[in-house]
Amino acid sequence: MRKQFQNLDFGPIIPIGESEFGKAPAFPKAGVHPRLLFTKENIPAIRRALDDPEYKAVRAQIDDLCADSFDGVLGIPYMHGVEGFPGRRGVHNFDARGIVTIEAKAFMYAITGDPELGYQAIDALQNFLLTLNIRYIFSDQCREYGQVMTVAAKVYDWCYDVLTEDEKYRIFAGVINYTAAGTCGLAVGMGEEPFKIYGSPNKMEVGYPPREQGCVSGHGSEGQVLRDYFSMAVAVYDEHPEWWEYVAARVYNDYLVQRNYYYKCGCAPQGNPTYAPFRMHYDLYSAYANKVLFGESPYIPELTKAPRSLYCYELPSGQHFSDGDGVHGGYKRAAFTLTTCALWASALSGDATLRAEYKYHRPDYSYSYEGPYSMMPSEFFILVSDGVKPAEDRHEGVSPVCYNCAPQHKIIARRRWDDKNSPAVYMKSGERSTANHEHRDAGTFQLFYKGMLSIDSGHYTLYGTASHANQQSTIAHNGILIKNPALDNGDSYHGSQRKMKETRTNASWLAEEGYRIGIPEGVKYEVHDGVCEYAYLAGNNAPAYDKETGIEYLSRRMLSVFTDSEKNPLIFATYDSIVTSIPESEKVILLHTQPGPAIEGNTVIAKNENASLVAQYISP
Questions:
Q1: I need a surface site. Which of 72, 94, 169, 343 has the fewest CB within 10 A?
Q2: Angle 339-340-344 (CA atoms, 0-180°, nearest 5)?
Q3: Directed axis angle between helix 336-349 and helix 352-361, to 10°?
Q4: CA–CA distance, 168 with 160 (Å, rounded to integer)
Q5: pLDDT tens per residue across span 203-226
Q6: What value does the mean pLDDT of the chain take?
């Protein structure tokens, strides 16, 4: 006997209103289900993928989820993220496995036609909505609320033909009232460290309707609109076309404009290996969902090439060059969302090299829940149903030089991919910053040979703190400080590049010169038979500094020359030209090493366990 629910318990349907983002340029075909991420025409291929022995580990996981007796009823909220109580830190009762279980059952109903799985998904979702109680999750509970909204959309769409009209009402009203509109119940007495409330108290930080925050950076640039609201708008289009008219208008006229401008550089902003792939995988989700709806993606092709750029940060040691907020200092960590991006992009483009990259990091393809932004087992089978097989080499067709033009104007180069002892260099000049998790690191570099030699010291700490401000500053990078004695206010002043706040739209980002951090002056490199001979990058970074520093021109030119010499495999040089209207300002050339260097006159010597960096400063 199925549980009986009452419509009144799910609240009223609050109108989303008219969109202030213009008109949606395209509309789904009414009366067609499923249509979110796959259609009936895709089901035979998905069935073949489910039966493919290569994916047996994920199949076992999805079968285990479907056998779970979880009924969607959640317990009382309690403190997570402390010893003995795992989960995202905060006071809540969000059940990660539970929400994945609901999605798995809805998916397998759509693929197998087993009505019992569909009924279980529908009933468990209603219980989940009614009993979800998030008092707060540290800074970003919108991610949990957003996952519930997305799973609700999948249940609505994938189980559409066994939904009653009352169930459609309850899911839709429940999504509005319990995941979108209003604020979460902030825990009383949680205002002291380490439980200080950061960010918005809203369930969805973009609000309901989703008009708040920006598309350029910040939490608004993640999945709230691109995945969560968009998925629901796709699912309920037949009954509630006004949701599509509002949400799709913002996606196409706001987000898509920004993405199709930025991805021309072939990479994502916000740093790697953490925030760039984390935020890019929502763009890829949006692109794939649109491709299923309309036959092609409205995003430019460079989006699907961007994961290749991010993989170029990887070093022979398994470490990564650091960029923006993240786990830095050469730690061995490949962000799981970077792996996720590889699979989404390969499914969109047929890129076998990216499919090989995914398999390299997940040899048996098995799923693991890393947070409300993880790829679901259902999504895995949808994506691999395309039949693309991994390339023999995960670097097949990947150049040893990765250049990303403006707004990044950045090069990552190594001598070659097939040499574990290859030196590598990261050179960033920069043209325009998106702020937020980007660092103030225009005109900086990092060097690697058999381990990190010169590093980015900007390790990510708690966002918005004094420590985090210093870690984002130029002083934590291999850049240039310009100190105006008149601005010196003590220890907090160190002559770094200026701070920037987030901006909302692509138009405001381009119109405000405050986001400009450089003017590209040159780039050149040569690759022969998969071997990089040299790489050169130059730019004027005067726009990155406050006008009060008096900087009129600050050009840093960086040259990396790779050799066959084991003793001197890399010769790296910078040439800095600085013009200032304040002659007494102090110019500081920074070099960060791991561990500390020995200094002898104008020579600096730094060593890792296997190699040495010898740097000499020559004044013209």
A1: 169
A2: 120
A3: 150
A4: 8
A5: 999 999 999 999 999 999 999 999
A6: 92
